[in-house]
Every structure is written in structure tokens, then in C-alpha cells.
């Protein structure tokens, strides 16, 4: 058992709430600060992409005993449904039988996590803004405004769980030798909704992750428990077809009818959301170090914000907490060691999922509808099914396993090199499921294994 | 002639002062703010690497009519002097006859630039700290402390010339879609001094840039007008031979006598400096955009800080000002256009010199003493002398020309690929000046030109 510490967590989002539950259950005194209102008392903002909980997320919830509670809020999706104009709906299974990602609303999940943390005895201080932090002393300063009167709090340990634009990291960033980068992509996103049928049922298959890939842009839709779908439109900020180019209702209607004719029945809803909801930006943020002595540590987006195209942002953040807790078990009261091991083991994995997420941004929008890409996936799947012990597809390794992201990236790169060669084989579209192709891959695997 | 504007420049360093002179001569009202004391009234800090003024720097001083004044403060260096243990001193010419870089003390230069700006009519406000800036309004806020009472100033245009840790950029950085990165290298530096002989003469050749390459670390020395040399020791922060590993006087003496026996006569001086002067970090900082409407622009290190290994930091910053002034001539009162063109033309060049400087960090410390590297340079030089119209060495293009850095990087990469192949030729160390090698390079150039 660890010695009880007085711990502050800045940020009551998903990762902050989960960390609070873990620490409380280990016997610490835990206070969570958030500059915003209690999410349980506000209407949702219309700027959230639905979450896709997968293996790492569930593992992290399971260890602290709240997996079953959360499962009740989620819908399993075992496949992609591809909406390509003038082509029948096409399905791609995500993994093996029984493997699925789980659609869950960010707002609903966050409210539940805070409820669970409060039940465990965590204290929440909402609408209390942290303006400064003394890193070596674990002191934080809160107040109405940056220039107003501040209140000082003394803690033993402070965690920054305050997201991509973290105030805690902001303070760490002003140290010498702190590495940092933030890179925005030129594509923005907007939340739209497809309402339920009148009888409360879903208008599209509720066991699929729906994608309308359109080259430079795409629409996705994930089901909610109430029969609606939360859609996200990913579209360049500027350019020929872009958020900038859609200013009037006419332009919006033209846009939806041209590119998304199969959901035109909900056009009035889509149009209202389009002009009501904000357009948001997406950023990849990396930094190092993540910790300061045994006093301060960053978790989740404040340490590693990624673009959402692998559905791993929350899962990676939850896994941070699982890793931290495993280290707490190992090193008990040696917080300096816990923090050192946490950042050195976690950083390469955070970098890897950042890279994979960025690559998926390219892949999802421009390649999912491409026949060569579909063939490639088919060959890979066929081979993986025959040789599950030597070929785990990259997506499965990221989504349905607990293997380190960095390992997934490295193995994925090797697989990609092999598939690049396979796709050059003569008549590969005809012989894709032949013994010849299978042996080719086996031989290639054999060769690279020796390198 | 432009309409007179009321312009603030934040930062009275080299680039800020030069910009002030340019803008004043164009008829604007110019106020320079600096949070620090007037550099003319303080002792130097012992944390400065001597500067190497080269072609771009001189061009920028020439256009505003202050080149000759500054030349008086500088010493020409036309070659490297390589100090390798157990090997005679070896010299490498930098360029063609008459080409040289110029050693100049940062402190002396900065004092002179401020004098010249004041003579031109620029107003300086030292020890006035800028804490905030309203970007769309070009308003700045100064005061004793961040939380104290602030004074508001309204300007037409504000320039951030406040260095790698710019407060102006810091404000821009909090906008959405602002890209930013800071990456520290694991090597630090410390200023040391080799004093003049008693008769005021230099102890080492004063027309050379002296290097003691030692693999993981190195020492450099550049002459001053007063007979002394400003040395810079570049050494890893941590590791076997590192700043961290040299704690006692004994360890320092051991270090200098092992690695730098030829300057042991000055050991007492070196040791005193070693323990008196701070150890500084080096960072590559990139960001974008550099401007906000027609209101705010970043120049010099605040827009693009680089590691010092190509001696181009100041030169690149001065060139920013030259480019800005050329655009002012072209677009007159259209400041929005001026700023747009400035950032879009300058950004790729800033990225290129950042990359080249980082590569030189690797090259200078680990390769300059390497026989294969010396042979390679010899072959390149030989070929360049015979074919000066088709082969300008990378170093010369960066240092002795006004050609864009991005072009230098691209052409340098092509040359490198060719030289990689040349170095694989059989017996190249024997036939390096043969017609065979010459023709090989000519043919390779011919081929890549067609790509």
C-alpha cells in the first residue's frame, strides 16, 4: 500500500476522471479542478466526435472495476460500411469474430465517469481556473482571472489532465530543454446529426461504422443509444470544396446533394447543424519530458494529442493511466521512479500512435474507396485468416490488442513493404487467393524476419 | 514613399536594431522596447558565441548604409584551422581567394547597432517589459510584473524581434492553427576565453576559425580585435564526457589536458571560465504563420531559431530585414501584402537553414577530422575549381552568396548523392584528382540535371 498523498488533478475530462478513480482507490486524497462548468449540468457543445472504445480502453476500465458500467453506454460496431456513390453499400469486417469497437458519446461517458469518481470519494472543483503552478513545490494557483487575486493550494503531486492546450504543460514548456511541437492539419471538422426514425430505431445499420469517403474529404457516422447517429464531416478549411467555400444555404444544399445523396432525407437537419455547430481544428501535439521530479506529471492529451483518425485518442489516454497504475504497484512510494519509468516507457508509444493516426487521416479519406486498396486489404485478411499466428493486421494490433503502439508501427511498416511487393505481382487481382501469393508472402516474411 | 506609421519593435538585439534603422530611414516613427537593461551599460554575460558575419549579413548592412562602420569591428577568417591531437595543424580554405567569414563579438556589435539606430532617431525603451499584446489592434501592454499595473500603447504595427523565447510569438501561439515546434539538442555550450599575449597579439593564427573536433564534442575559437579569442566548448549535457561529469577542478584539468593539450598554457583561464560561465542550451524553433494581418510580424530568432553550427543565425535574421525592405519597396503601403509575401517567401528558407545548421552540428564535431571526409572535401574543391560554373560547394552557396537557403539545401543534397557514389570508386584516394573522377562527376551531374 502506498503512503497517502494529497493529489490534485487539473482537468475533469475522461482521462482526468479515470485517473481520479484509480488514485482514490489506492487510498489517496484526490481533488479535481476544472475551469469549465460541471459537464453534467450543461448542454453538449456540438463539437464532439463520437468515441470508439477499443481494447486498451476496456482494459483500463476493467482494472479499476468500472468496465461493466460503461459497457451499458456503448454500441458494438464490428465493421465499416462504405458509402460510395453509384456503388452498393460495401462492408469491411474490423477483425475476427467477436471483435468490435464501441461507439460511445463523449458527453455521456464523461458525465458517468465523474459520477463514478464522486461515488468513490473524489472531490471536484468546477469553474475554478488554474493560472499558475510552481513545479518544484506542487503548488497551484487559481482565481477568477489571470490578473485577479489568486488562491494558493499546496499538494504533494499535481497531474495535468487538461488536454491539448494544457496549462500545466504550458508552465513546463517554459523550462529550458523542454521539447514541444504542435502541428495542425489543414482539414477541420464539424459535428452533424442524423436523427432516429419516429419509432426510435436507427436509420442506418447500427452495428457499422459508416464512412462516406470522398477523396479530399469524408463524412463518418457512429450510432447512439437513442437511435440517432453522430456524424462528423471532415473537410479542408480552404480550397475548392471546403468549409470556406460553403457560405450560403444554397451552397450547403448543393454540397450535400452532390456528395451525400443517400442521406438527403435528413438534409434539413444536416443544414441546421452545419450552420449552428462550430468548425474545429485538429492538432498533433508532442512534448518531452512529461514529468517534473516526483511532483508533476502530464497524462492523456496534455502529453500527446493526436488527430482522431485511428479512434485511439481516448484509448491511448486511458492506457497512460493503466501503465501508471502498474508502475505504482511495482515501485510503491518511489514516485520519482514511477514518473521516470512512465514517461520513458510511454513516450515511444505515444509518438507511434500519433504517426499511425496521421497516416490513417490520409488513408481513410483518399484510399478506402480505392479498388487497389480494397484488394490489398482482402489479400491481407485472407492471409491473416490462414496464418493468424504470423500475421496480425496493423489495425487489429492497434485496436484489439494491448501490444505497444511502437511495436504495431514497426511491424506494420514491415507488412506494408511486403504488401507493396505483392501488389506488383502479375494478375494479382485474379490470383489474390492463390497458393502462389500465399507462398510469396510466407517467403517474404521469412526473409524480413532474418534482417 | 510609404505613409508614416507608428511602429513598435519588441527586442533591441541585433535584428531588432537593424530593423529599427531600416524603418526609421523609411520615415516611420520607431520605438524599440526591451525588458533588459541597455546592453551598452552592462558587462557581457559570458554566454555568447562569437558571430560569423558572412555575405547575407553584409548585404543587409550595405543596403542601409552601415556596412563600413561594422567592418571596423570584424576580423576576416578565410579558413578553418583543425587541431587534431598528434597531427600537425591542418588548414581548410573556406572558399575562393578573397572569400572570408568575419569574426565579431555579439556584445560589441549590438552596442554599435543601438548607437547607430539612436543616431538615426529611433527611440529605445529599455527595462520596459512587454507582457501582453492584442494582435488585431497592435496594442502592447508593459509593466513591472505580469500581475502588476500595465501601461497600454497603441501602435500601427508591432514587430516581434524578441528572440527564440519571444513573448510576441507566445501570444500568436495561442491561436488555433498556429504550428510550432521547439527541439533542444542534447549538447550544451560554454564560453571560454584565451587571453592575448602580453604584447596584445593573438596566441593563435587570427585569420583562422579554430576547431578542435573530438567526436562527441568540440571546441572552437574565434579571434577578437583585442588579441583574445572567444572559445566555445560544445559538450553533451549528460554522459561519459559531459558537463555533468566535470564537477571538480581536478576533473576539469584532466579534461582539458587530455583533449586540448595544445592550449594547456591557458589552463588557469579556461578553468576559471569553465566554472564561472553558465552552460547554455541550443534549440531549433520553427513556427507558422509569422504574421497577423497587417498588424504584427515576427523577425529573426522569434520566427526561426536555429542551432549555431552553420554560423547563419544572425545572417538569416538580417536577411529577413533585407527581404522585408525589398517588399516594402515593391508594395509600398500594402502592409498586408508585404507581410504575406514576407512569410511565404521566407519560411522555406528558414526551414532550410535550420536543417543545414542541424546537419553541420553532426558534421563539425564528428567528421571534420575524418580522413574520408577530408578526401571528399578535397575532391569537391578540386572539381569546383575546375568547373566553378556548375559546382558551387554547399558551404559557399550558404555563406558567400545571396542564393536562397532552400535552393542551397536542394542542390547540396544532389551534390551529396553524387559524392556518395564518387567515394565508392575504386582507389578513389589515389585517383581523386584524375580525369576519370572528373568525368564521372560530370556525367552524374548531367544525369541528375535531367531528372
TrEMBL record, chains A, B:
It catalyses: L-kynurenine + NADPH + O2 + H(+) = 3-hydroxy-L-kynurenine + NADP(+) + H2O. Pathway: Cofactor biosynthesis; NAD(+) biosynthesis; quinolinate from L-kynurenine: step 1/3. GO terms for molecular function: monooxygenase activity. The keyword NADP applies. It is an enzyme of class 1 (oxidoreductase). Its EC number is 1.14.13.9. InterPro entries: FAD-bd, FAD/NAD-bd_sf, Kynurenine_monooxygenase. Keywords: FAD, Flavoprotein, Monooxygenase, NADP, Oxidoreductase, Pyridine nucleotide biosynthesis. PANTHER family: KYNURENINE 3-MONOOXYGENASE (PTHR46028). Catalyzes the hydroxylation of L-kynurenine (L-Kyn) to form 3-hydroxy-L-kynurenine (L-3OHKyn). Required for synthesis of quinolinic acid. This is Kynurenine 3-monooxygenase.
